Amino acid sequence: MSQFVVNIIHRIELSPEYSQKTTQQGEKDDISSSALTQESVEIFKTQQDLAHANGLKTTIQITYAALFSDECVKLVKDYHDKYGDEIALSLLGLPCQQFRNKYQTKDFCIWMFSEKDKRSIIDDVFSLFKKKFGFYPESTGSYFLDAYTINYIKEKYPSVIAAVATCFEEGPKAYHTTNNSWYTFLDGGPWAPWIPSKINSHCPAMSKDDDSGIVAIPHLSRDVMACFDGNGSNFGTHPQNVLRGMIYEDEEIPYLYNLIDEYRHLEKYNDGLAYNMMFVGPGWMNKAGRWEVPYSFLLKSYRDAMEYYGKLKKEGQLQDLTMAEFARLYRQKKTYGQPECALWKDILYGSQKQYFWYIDPYMRTCLDFNQGGAMIDLRPYVARLPWKVGIGTDHVFDASYPYLIQANYRAGYFTHYAGEGTVKSLKVSYKGEEVDLCLCRTMATYSKVGEDTLVTADPVTVELKGLKVDIRSSFLFKKGQSEIIIKREILNDLHGEEVSFEEYLTGAFGTTEYQSDMSAITLQVKGKSLQKSIRFAYKNRRILLEDATSVSAKIPEIGTLVEMTSDEPLEGYVDEGYAFSPCYRLAYKKKMTKGALITCLKLKKVA
Amino acid sequence: MPQAKKGRLNYRCPSCFMREIDIDMFYDETKKEYYCLRCCYHGTEEEVLKLNEMAKFRYKDINKRVVSFGKDNEPLVLTDHKKGEK
How far apart (Å, rounded) are the C-alpha atoms in residues A53 and A2? Predict the structure, then answer.
């Protein structure tokens, strides 16, 4: 039986982000302004009232600043007593005079502090919570929680079982959207709940030993297509994000209902469990209006959202749980290694574009069926990078999990003057003409083969020198094996004509649009008896074997070996990039009159 | 002229919005217009509102409701959204 769960989270805070800069233009910063704090509490109460009026339970995440207010603490206790709302603790909302006096900083993102400050802040916040409520919370969160922070919390405060721990695809795009000012570089994580690894919180845990002990949820349920293609802050289960994106007409927001419905639909691919999270900080509903709209529309949009969730609940199609309740349910329903999938259709642009997102403890990837099933994103979770973040580490603010392929940051199917872009696809050639399946728009079907996940594209036809070739691509994600078997099958009779298939992966590595030095990469091709390898030196060389069974790139910076194998010895080669095009390219070529080209993409951890 | 201020609402630059940059404009009381610090755009409130509507051109299903997600490999089934309905 399918189940759709929503977590509605409200943050009671006294210095809301956004409000301060937008409502008090022309005034100096004053985080203790009584007008601001009073407005913030009033907005929180409005949000709570709207949820309860629609029969919905909430999780209240109290902030550090609000813990100093007896009025806020009493309010939260009253809501808990009356409605059963969970009292949780947010690591957002740190800024207040007490915090600034003690830590002498305007930093407010827990993952960006030094390890020493993380420990100190967590202890401060948790002990104050205990003092005010008499118990430690079961749920916490921030826009992002790194593994160090989660592990520390779990060790010191084992009551915590749930946390908000990432914003899906919030990274360079969010940075650009804010005119290069918002340093939440968190790309490469899950879009749906997961159990974070102890080593890197982006990665789902592999086993009990790797289990951080919490169930993590993303900050908002985001449109996994619109947020990958564009600004992540416009397309989530956050009514004011939708207004920010100007996705409304006549003060109506059907896109938000469609987004909620598409998340409901995802139960089909996830053993019957679908999930939604709504979390709107008070600053987004400030009385002065925001994103070109007046307060009245900010309020209406939130009311509309609550009414829709409430309607679904009344129809028996939604279960409202607190974060801790959801964490317990998730533990009952999920096992380690169970993938999360999203076969996602465009619900906004009318394009019929379709993505398939897949995540398991070994990888996160995305296939674009508007490009014939091309792989447009690939993250090697198998490496479980111990990527420390915060002051005093190598990554002060960049918490993103590195990619091997990111087609939007790194060109993708190539259309420009010179160079190559990161993508994995198939090229077909015949008598001097060539076509890439990236140019074949199609759609796909999801199915299970035992415990494995199969995604099969509808056949596409390529035409070369008058010869039509019908090709079906399929992708078999092997559970627990860090492998995808990719099959490219000729479906029609070519009457003896021979075409050439080239399965390729153009890769790089990084977390932003810009490539760091690639000199430590080793490229290799292995055959039945020979193997060749070169160290990356930007010389645009090719190593090739006629009977290759493995082509690979070993990337020490991200502890990853990316490899394509073939059971059948084939012409296989690896191209080294050059300074203007810092990529590597792994490929197999096969001449065919019929049958299929089958290769396997493998990701491995290396020292 | 005296210093510029933010306007009645935080109007973002429509030109920057189209390239996915959210940047609030400031209001020049002397010229009675909004202007952007990031690019050369400037215009009246009326023009900004008109351009904001234009910026929605890409959202072809902005006023549609999904009736069914259909089979995996089939297009969505959509209907026109009716005001006030969920």
Answer: 26
